[in-house]
Amino acid sequence: MSAVEEKLASLGLTLPEVAAPLASYVPAVRTGDYVYTAGQLPLVEGKLGVTGKVGAEVTAEEAKELARICALNALAAVKSAVGDLDKIVRVVKVVGFVASAPDFTGQPGVVNGASELLGELLGVKGVHARSAVGVAVLPLDAPVELEIQVEIAG
Question: Who's near 88: CB < 8 A, 6+ residues apart?
Fold first, then answer.
């Protein structure tokens, strides 16, 4: 078990199986020293537990937890591309999409769920640039979607 996965276990979390693509793409692509993930939904065992718009059917706190799940799924996608999460040199960029009610403006707080988890797991390696974008709708009516870009050693 990698040090990152040991840290996950200490937080009471486990790395999920990589989420199966919903269309014609792969979960992650490695090019050179970087891995780019596809957008990751908050799927647990292949299912969305919550659907709807943040600020309407979904609270900001619920969505923040969903962003954590997206981050776990993104890490699973990274592992599928490189085999070992300890190869992460740093998380370079996180892009979070939040399906938002028209008057909801708390997207940064929602995406903090992912950013905070990456920091807990990776320390300074988890500090990243980020975008948090409000959108009208996401696949499967998911409240949150996340993609990450990481630098990998060797």
Answer: 4, 78, 122, 125, 150, 151, 152, 153
- Bridge pairing between strands 88-99 and 129-135: parallel
Reference 72, options 23, 11, 128; nearest CA is: 11
CA 64 to centroid of chain Cα atoms: 11
Interatomic CA distance for residues 106 and 28, integer angstroms:
28
Which runs of E-coded beta strand occur in 25-153? 28-31, 34-37, 43-44, 47-48, 88-99, 129-135, 144-152
For the entire predicted model, the pTM comes to 0.96
Q: How many helices (H) and strands (E) does the chain have?
A: 3, 7
pLDDT tens profile 80-108: 999 999 999 999 999 999 999 999 999 99
Strands (E), the chain: 28-31, 34-37, 43-44, 47-48, 88-99, 129-135, 144-152
The residues with which 96 forms a beta bridge, in sequence order, are: 132, 146
> Cα 97 to the chain's mean position, in Å?
10
Q: List the 129-135 sheet strands across, edge first.
A: 28-31, 34-37, 144-152, 88-99, 129-135
| Residues 37, 148 contacting (CB under 8 angstroms) | yes
